[in-house]
Predict the structure.
Amino acid sequence: MRRPAPAAALLAATLTGTALLTGCAASSGTGDAKAELSVHSAYMPQPLSAAMAAGFLTIENKGGAKDELTSVTSAGAEDVTVHQTAGGVMKEAGPLTVPAHGRLVFESGGNHLMFDKLKRAPRQGQTVLVELHFAESGTVKVEMPVKSATYNPTTGH
Ligand code: CU
């Protein structure tokens, strides 16, 4: 009385698995693969003072090779560092990888950019110009909009 197994569904699942494996093998392959970076969702919550501010963004890589974010600069701040938050403690991070066909996310509670000694305190509605320096892709300039101090990108749209 059993109905026949859904063979078509099983076959489809197997094929999908194969396709994924093939895709991975191809992307880690030969030397002409390049990183193709784009930056989106950049914002800075309005800081309390010019002493220190945090910044967030997402770096997307549509290319078949990884890249590394080696440093960050801004004309509006004396120093910009990349921080990682782990277990509630933040520390300076080394070069962070943007994986091939992947993304590097800076978000509240995780990785963030730390601006030290800003020339003036950024106000909501202004933008802060940031230069991201990559090992392969060179410098990418980003205009980071200043949002309210409590801005949350998951509810803020
Ligand atoms: Cu920090």
The longest strand covers residues 52-61.
